[in-house]
Amino acid sequence: MRKNNLLSLWDMMALWSAITSLFSKTDDSTTNWIRNRNIVHGNRTRQLLTAFEKYDGGTGRLDAGNISTAFNEVDLYPSRAQVRDMILCASECSNRESRDHILFGEFCIFVTELKEKYERESLLQPLTTDKMKTKHRFLKRQTSSVISRFEVFLGGSCVPSMWRKDIAIPLLKQYGLTYFDPVHEIWGPELVEVENQAKKAADLLLFVFDDVTRGVAAMVEVAYLVGQGRPVILVVTGLPMSGVMINGQTLNDSEVQDLERAHAVLFDLVERQGIPVFDDLPTAVHCAAKVLRMGISVQDLSKADGARGVQNAHISVGESIILIKEAFDGVDTKKTGNLDMNDVRLTYKALTRKDLTIGEVTSICNVSSSRNEELTFNFQEFCCIVDEYKAMATTHNRIGDFFSFIFSGLFTLFGWMKTRTAEQIIMEDLTIRREVFLGGSCANTAWREQIAIPLLRKHGITYFNPQLPVWNLRYLPLENEAKAYCTVLLAVITGETRGLASMVEIAFYIGQDRDLVLSLEDIQGGTVINGHKVTNQELQDYSRGRVYLADAANCHGIPVFTNITEAVECAIKKVYKLSGYS
């Protein structure tokens, strides 16, 4: 008898093991309830969960380094700036202090938002790859180089970096590609013209950044060349960190922050042109050979080539999840972080103008109606419901993009701006039109308030002032919009700031032939920036960047001043001329 009972017990344990193993890897919504993860409500969220779990490492979160790869899995290719915005928006909406990951509900909303915006962008006609190729050919035809023609220009980090000699040049020789190496033991301003001729003659420009040099001049160069539409392959094998030794000198926190900001601006500008950023030099050289031998553009390089593809890097992301969070918090008056079934219905109606019955919700969740009163949904779970419903609604009736879908209900609930459509409000709010953009050095400078703004007001000129007490990378899309629609860019680089991020931006806009006025001051020996005295090596690096920037401006006929008042007066004259003022 005891033996039979023992066998029965083993049979029961085996049966239970089989049942639990069956449930452990299924996407069934009931299983997700058992696993305390009420996140799958239909085909949409089931498919997204498959992509999400492929890269979450079993943690239930996508870390910053895996976000792009997970989006690539669903044919979306966000830029570094877009990934950064996703993380910041998600952290703010979920009240997380850590800003290094996103969760599944947030992932669903971001995927839908990007897909909607991709579809909208496909209806527009931006500068296509073919047009960029044509622009490049035009630039090449205008070049009368006095030096031999080389296929690849090797720009970027110089001494003590050895990437050219150790890796790039041997690989280029294997591919049978000619190259120009601009490295000289002693650099002088007279070499700028020689390098310019080599860059103009080259078919492709390969730039590498590492953690053993500042790369100040190289960042300015890359931004300018990308602005021109030149074929650039950018490789980042490392970036300087706080405490790192460069040429025997330790970087302080202030300079590291300036370098980080400049790199962020550069990557954003590069990826907005559809140019991938590589982290492996041999892969980048292979892609360079493919571009040159097969006649494709850099923008055509794909994930299969080892490129980190980017699409539509100019669009913003994060608005939809913020709107959903606002609606969620508006109904969650007790601030519990959860909504019961009735609150879910109310919030859903606020967002979509659609009634969602308790029966429909329980059907989606595959939970018996007897448990309705026990059901609650946190913000992540609510995001999953919103995303699944959006997919269902789009399948049966093309509602329009996600913004109209979300905005429409909010406008009805709160009575906002009833005379305009959601699309009109979005486009009008994001379009910032001013005559002068006050770009350049910020930090502790006062040239805007003391010189520029009084003169502009005196002449009735509108302006956009980007200077804020505390600047954040989240402001980049707003600033980019303001720059895109201004009449004249006024850029002032003062001598008491490094101004690297601003120089990178200015170089890009010079390459684009924008109407620009530049005031450029040199950093003097002994200058103190944020409590740190500028070293001789630091002075040389940032002075070299200023030389490259001034040279680019001169090549495009852009006036370069050393007096800020004269620069502002020149900008005012440009506005009058371009706007037809008398």
Automatic annotation (TrEMBL):
GO terms for molecular function: calcium ion binding. Keywords: Signal. It holds the Pfam family Nuc_deoxyri_tr2. Residues 319-354 form the EF-hand domain. GO terms for cellular component: plasma membrane. Residues 1-21 form the signal peptide. PANTHER family: RAW, ISOFORM A (PTHR36300). This is Hypp4524 protein. The gene is Hypp4524.
